[in-house]
Design goal:
There is one protein chain. This protein has about 280 residues and is of the alpha+beta class. The chain folds into 2 domains: about 5-140, Fructose-1,6-Bisphosphatase, subunit A, domain 1 (Fructose-1,6-Bisphosphatase, Chain A, domain 1, 2-Layer Sandwich), CATH 3.30.540.10; about 150-260, D-Maltodextrin-Binding Protein, domain 2, CATH 3.40.190. Helices cover about 35% and strands about 25% of the residues. The protein has 8 helices and 15 strands. The strands form 3 sheets. It has an 8-stranded mixed β-sheet, sandwiched between helices. A 5-stranded mixed β-sheet has the order 12-11-13-15-14, sandwiched between helices. A two-stranded antiparallel ribbon has the order 1-2. Strand 3 (about 65) and strand 4 form a beta hairpin. Helix 5 (about 190-195) packs parallel to helix 6 (about 210-220). The longest helix is centred in the N-terminal third of the chain and has 21 residues, at about 5-25. The radius of gyration is 17 Å and the shape is globular. The two termini are about 25 Å apart.
Amino acid sequence: MDSTLVVATQAAHAAGKIIMHYFDERDTLSVTTKAFNDFVSEVDCRAEQAVIAVLKEAYPSHGFLGEEGGQQGEVENEYVWIIDPLDGTTNFLRGIPHFAVSIALVQSGEVVCGVIYDPARQELFTAARGGGATMNGRVLRVAEQTDFPSAMLGTGFPLIDRNVCGAYFDMLRAATRRGTGIRRGGAAALDMAWVACGRIDGFWEIGLKPWDIAAGVVLIEEAGGVVTDFAGGHSYLKTGDVVAACPALHRQMYEAFLPHAADLPFRDRTGGVAVDRPA
């Protein structure tokens, strides 16, 4: 396994241990509302601290961008780790066992490795650029679904940025009118991991943050899939807008959603760190 994946895996397991320790003690946790429909618990913070401690020990000169702690180190660094210590916090707080730790490394603007760890199922998804993608050591490939109406898609509702709801629900209507199956799990990182392993055929969402997306990008691409924004480019880590599937299905999703995405504003959500994948 790539050395960075080994360290990222150790960091993900450290966070997962904290998360599962508190899963049955959720009523004792301190929970804060960061914004409308956006919550953070002390578990999120402790898990992120655990991840960064492991990564810093191995790579003290690297930069870090975490959901809870923000930027640490030099954000213009050649190497920046992007961390979501608990993707699916609302699920966790409700006792729904569908959440994950997401860790990705960006080198010179390109996501080069990613780890998504589901501690409830003990499923570890890993990928390194040029090295393929695996789940618990098994090689992953995206589902080769070529028929949009027969596809099963994952998505997430834009509950925080209400300015994009109109465009999003037009996309949802376009998919459901074709008879497409839709699932909303509440953890974007796991949705992208599930595209990589073929459990769902594709995924789209509007207004995510880079830590929701980064690890999933390299997982899907190394599993043979395609990830773009709604302009067909690679600014998804800046805009938070993402479409992902195998090549044939991605094209159909993109064409179906493009008319409804035309009025979406560009929203730089990176916190200033350069995380675009080169064209």
